């Protein structure tokens, strides 16, 4: 069973207590014990973060892809966020986000692409292969990422929007890249950050477990 977050896994005991209560309520309403362990951990963490139980069937989890992402996080691999809204929700882990750079705005004008897509293009050079990519902004970020032919450890592709989001996520699933995505138009920064936080907590639990042996 995936580890339940506890008071020792974060700097704010009050927040951790609230998180543990969220997990208690979630598990009283929904039994996901039949899912593979990483898929369960990510699905539960996304649901508790969004209070949206539809993610049970909306998320597309691939256990080997999540294992690749977990291994990357455990070794401290670079993490890239497509937009500042995603990066702002991740504390305690360095995140590359180029969408807020002035260079991204200039590149967007020059290349006639969105600023978030320009940020992905710039981050591609900064991150290199083996990074974990978190896309929770607009679909253009995901389209750009697929076009860059990156070699990621994992792409969390959950952009939100009625125009092109579902199509971009479908393209990600057909790209062959290791990925976590969802089927519908919904998604967003909170979903991307929650998926990453689930993997980060699992990585911390694994380190703690290995340290006690």
Features:
disordered N terminus, single chain, 6 strands, globular, 6-stranded mixed β-sheet, 213 residues, Rossmann fold
Task: Give the end-to-end Cα distance, rounded to a whole number of Å.
Answer: 20 Å
What is the CATH level 1 assignment?
Alpha Beta
- The ordered string of helix (H) and strand (E) elements is HHHEHEHEHHEHEHEH
> How would you state the average pLDDT, rounded?
90
Based on secondary structure, the structural category is alpha/beta
- The CATH architecture can be named as 3-Layer(aba) Sandwich
Q: How does the overall form come out from the CA principal axes?
A: globular
What is the domain tally?
1
Oligomer description: single chain
Number of strands: 6
Radius of gyration: 17 Å
Q: Helical residue percent? A: 40-55%
CATH superfamily assignment?
A: Cobalamin biosynthesis CobH/CbiC, precorrin-8X methylmutase
Number of helices: 10
Low-confidence stretches: 1-10
Description:
The chain has 213 residues and is of the alpha/beta class. The protein has a single domain, classed as Cobalamin biosynthesis CobH/CbiC, precorrin-8X methylmutase (Rossmann fold, 3-Layer(aba) Sandwich), CATH 3.40.50. It is built from ten helices and six strands. Strands 1-6-5-4-2-3 form a six-stranded mixed sheet, sandwiched between helices. Strand 4, helix 8 and strand 5 form a beta-alpha-beta unit. The longest helix has 23 residues. The N terminus is likely disordered.
């Amino acid at each position: 069973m995936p580890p339940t977050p506890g008071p020792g896994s974060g700097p704010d005991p009050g927040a951790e207590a609230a998180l543990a209560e969220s997990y208690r309520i979630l598990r009283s309403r929904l039994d996901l014990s039949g899912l593979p362990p990483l898929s369960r951990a990510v699905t539960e963490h996304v649901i508790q973060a969004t209070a949206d139980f539809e993610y049970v069937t909306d998320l597309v989890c691939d256990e080997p892809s999540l294992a690749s992402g977990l291994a990357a996080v455990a070794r401290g691999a670079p993490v890239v966020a497509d937009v500042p809204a995603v990066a702002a929700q991740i504390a305690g882990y360095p995140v590359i986000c180029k969408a807020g750079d002035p260079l991204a705005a200039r590149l967007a004008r020059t290349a006639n692409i969105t600023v978030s897509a320009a940020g992905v293009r710039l981050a591609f050079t900064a991150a290199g292969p083996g990074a974990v990519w978190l896309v929770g902004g607009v679909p253009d970020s995901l389209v750009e990422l697929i076009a860059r032919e990156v070699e990621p450890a994992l792409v969390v592709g959950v952009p939100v929007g009625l125009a092109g989001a579902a199509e971009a996520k479908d393209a990600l699933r057909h790209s062959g890249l290791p990925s976590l995505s969802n089927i519908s138009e919904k998604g967003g920064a909170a979903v991307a950050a929650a998926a990453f936080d689930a993997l980060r907590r699992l990585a911390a639990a694994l380190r703690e477990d290995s340290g006690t042996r």
